[in-house]
Write the structure tokens for this entry.
Amino acid sequence: MKPKSTFATAINCMDGRVQIPVIEWMKQKYNVQFVDMITEPGPDKILSKESSELVNSIRNRVVISIEKHCSEVIAVTGHDDCAGNPVSKEIHIEHIKNSIETIKSWNLPVSVIGLWINKDLEVEELNYQ
Ligand SMILES: [Zn+2]
């Protein structure tokens, strides 16, 4: 029997400011105990491209989180004042959208969401119509 999922997964920036806000938001939203954190500088920029060595590396880590920890949701994030992806909020929003498409193309049995962390370190879920 599949154990109850108590993990979620975030592909987050390495920036120290955005770790706890994302963890706390996901724990609350999905009622999980732990959030597996896959960090890179500016992950929304990295995942805007469909393939690269780094995209493969991120995918491998996501698969571990799903297969070993039974995570059922993957968040990809962008944040204000990102050193790894120093672009406007509008471009971040576009990058996050493209990143969701990249992750969905992996055909994994999980939900994929996009999060924006604003200058006050508040987490906002992005809704793309
Ligand atoms: Zn960043």
